[in-house]
Design goal:
Thiol Ester Dehydrase, Chain A; 3 helices; 21% helix; globular
């Protein structure tokens, strides 16, 4: 499986369900978006995307940033995910994230990110995560 940054966020089925899309790279960081959809609002009719959906987006986008840094698809497991919700999402707005892998060891990767709606200077959440990195590359076909 060749690594294509545009496809990383679709590797996990729930990423497709949330409508996650790769937008662009920004140096070592990745920008991912989650378009507004009524199915993921906190309260019906509120137009505010639920914190759980934002958490799932960030976990996926942080993992994608680790894949980018590794340069290959490897099996990852989230060891720790910290989410700080700073304000609610704006009603009926797309949520964006900027994530980057800040440290990589043989067995653990550390990543951080921020999520916002219309202004990156007014984040709705910030996050830090640690991922366990498996020895097996998904690119090699081993472990299937």
């Amino acid at each position: 499986m060749a690594m294509d940054l545009k496809e990383i966020v679709f590797f996990i089925p729930h990423a497709k369900k949330l409508g996650l899309r790769f937008v662009e790279t920004d140096g070592d960081a990745m920008i991912v978006e989650m378009p507004f959809q009524e199915a993921i609002v906190a309260r019906k009719g509120s137009g505010i995307i639920a914190n759980g959906a934002v958490t799932t987006m960030m976990d996926t986008a942080l993992g994608a940033a680790v894949f980018k840094r590794l340069g290959e698809m490897r099996k990852l497991a989230t060891l720790d995910l910290r989410m700080d919700f700073l304000r609610p999402c704006l009603p009926n707005h797309t949520v964006y994230s900027r994530t980057e892998c800040i440290r990589l060891t043989r067995e653990v990767a550390f990543a951080r990110g921020v999520a916002w709606c219309d202004d990156p200077e007014k984040p709705v959440a910030q996050s830090m995560a640690a991922f366990s990195i498996a020895e097996i590359s998904l690119d090699s076909g081993a472990g299937k």
